[in-house]
Amino acid sequence: MIATRMSTRAARLGWSVILLTAACQRAAPVSPDAVASLGGSEVRYAEFERYVARNAGETGIALGSDVLSELLDQFLDERLLARLAADRGLVPPAAAPRQATDALLTADLRGEAGDGDVARDTARYYEAHPQEFTRPERVRLRQILTENRAAAEAARREIVAGAPFEDVARRLSSGPRADSGGYQGELARGDLPPSFADLIFSLKPGEVSPVVPADYGFHLFQVIEREPAQRVPLAAAREEILARLRQQNADQLLRSLVQAARSRYNVKVHERNLPFGYAGSYSDEIHAKKTR
What we know:
Helix content is about 50%, strand content about 15%. The protein is an alpha+beta fold.
């Protein structure tokens, strides 16, 4: 009899534990204005609206669901990184997302490669991307622009007779930089209008072009000097390459930090509370596909 009573009490106690566990596991009610839950804290839709206004310059009404979904992902990623930085003691809990992200990147990039590795990586990048450091053929160019052909022909006759091009430009040109002798700088073929490029690049240094008509006047061109196509030396390209490598490292690290924060904190987007069709990377459907 005693054993039977004990068994009954044990059974009742077991059911009580099961019911209590089920109650604890039941999802807590979500506020109707909560856009997401992040690490146990609700994120309000009004916060997301302010984020959209700052970053897209819109109230959100004119933006499509795909754009709003992407913005919501960015917003939640920034909140996650801010939480991660605060938990690591890098910033105070109320720090701005940009400050938190910078603190995380600074802390994790301190172990950057030494001087020997940097030199090696710079040389490798230079050899792997030759097209990025090849400068096309260029010309140093002067021009005269007049409103009518007669003025342009008169200017050309003066120059052919021996007058310096720059002096004639100062007196007669109505074009840009006339007061500096019509000097236009160092230009590649791609910097010039296609209708002028072939003619200009056919000129020899010191040679003056024929009068060239345009919709807005008449041109004379003079090539001062030609620079052949050349590859920028590694020493001259080093700082540019280092900046690109640092940016690549920072981008890769940022992606890793976001992934680590997503894994560490339980993020749930409350799609039923959103006034648009959410299709971002936090959606249950996309998450289920990734974990299959």
